[in-house]
Amino acid sequence: MAGYSFDMENYMTRESFTKIKEFASTKETPFLVTSLGVVARKYDELKESMPYANVYYAIKANPSVEVLKLLAARGSCFDIASVYELDLVLSLGIPPGRLSFGNTIKKACDIRYAYEKGVRFFATDAESDVRKLAKNAPGSDVFFRILTDGLGADWPLSRKFGARPGVIFQNILLARELGLNPRGVSFHVGSQQHDVTQWRGALATCRELFDAAGKKGITLDLVNMGGGFPAHYLSSVEETPVYAEAVTGYLREFFDSDFPRIIVEPGRYMVGDAGILVTEVVMISNKEGEGGVSWLYLDVGKFSGLIETLDESIKYPIYSEQTGDVRDYVIAGPTCDSLDILYEKTSCRLPSNLEEGDRLYFLTTGAYTQTYSSIFFNGFPPLKSYVIA
């Protein structure tokens, strides 16, 4: 297989890539192709590595109907972030008992709507939200999100979500007082987390809250560990069994062998590796003249699915079918916005004989691309998305 300087086999099998490439050959760029076979493999791998964990797939990562149907058939539950995701999964016949409303930021009317549709499992992290839940979803099971710092993650989820343990403890007491059912504690160590020890610190805090609640007569029986397991971008990561073994060890450290109910909410992990975003070279420009770095403009950019290149946080592997010498490029999108630069500080070495009209393949783009795509910026339509077996 022709290409530039990385091993395709580290990201997707030759068979899977060939199938996607053949499917893509007649389609107009840009577009995303998601492989259901890869999604199925990732789900099975996670269940084999952590058989005790209940999987709640984070729909926000990739809400393709085919992906949801496949995971539902395999037994997955689902983490919803809005009433719109709720309506989507209910339309597929997935019962509300398999749903968790995991977004801590909710309107009262949305809580009430979800409750009326049968949802009884909610995340929270603020007194205001606890009071809204008590009024609009009486008697529901709730879990409480603690604040984490996100160190070691390429895409941290700190600051905005969660609260300090002392605040969470008071919210647990308030929830019981208002007639809700406090079930447990949740956390998220940050998306694309490289440092597995981050789970240890969070689980230590969970144990402390379990003990403190127990002294007040509240028995917590659930830990929601959120997401964090990585997909395969340019930076190397450990494989799923390595993460799972370490996390399982931390659970035993703090909860012995009598685990509470354990939930994981994979999003990026589940679908990231399954996607390839196909794009076309629109223009090549040498702004600085002889010896300068060439700019490579594509028909996809930050506003059409690649927003996670913000601050060059997520570094996607980029595959070219051209061969020969390589050189550095600055890579940018097609819009009339100077923010639409994907990689300028990160070295992007691609074939020096690239031409306008050539295709490039952004690997590991199955998560947070289609869903981040704008709907009409500069008139460009949303990123097209296809799913294949």
Notable traits:
TIM Barrel; eight-stranded mixed β-sheet; 30% helix; alpha/beta; disordered N terminus; Lyase, Ornithine Decarboxylase, Chain A, domain 1; 18 strands; 389 residues
Tell me the total number of β-strands.
18
CATH homology-level superfamily of the largest domain: Alanine racemase
Identify the CATH architecture of the largest domain: Alpha-Beta Barrel
Overall structural class, as computed from helix and strand content, comes to alpha/beta
Kindly give the count of domains: 2
CATH class of the largest domain: Alpha Beta
Estimated share of beta-strand residues: 15-25%
Q: What does the radius of gyration come to?
A: 22 Å
Low-confidence stretches: 1-5
Biggest sheet features: 8 strands, mixed
The third-level CATH topology of the largest domain is: TIM Barrel
List SSEs in N-to-C order.
HEHEHEHEHEHEEHEEHEHEHEEEEEEE
**Helical segment count:** 10
**What is the terminal-to-terminal distance?**
22 Å
Shape: elongated
Helix content: 25-40%
Q: Residue-averaged pLDDT, rounded?
A: 94
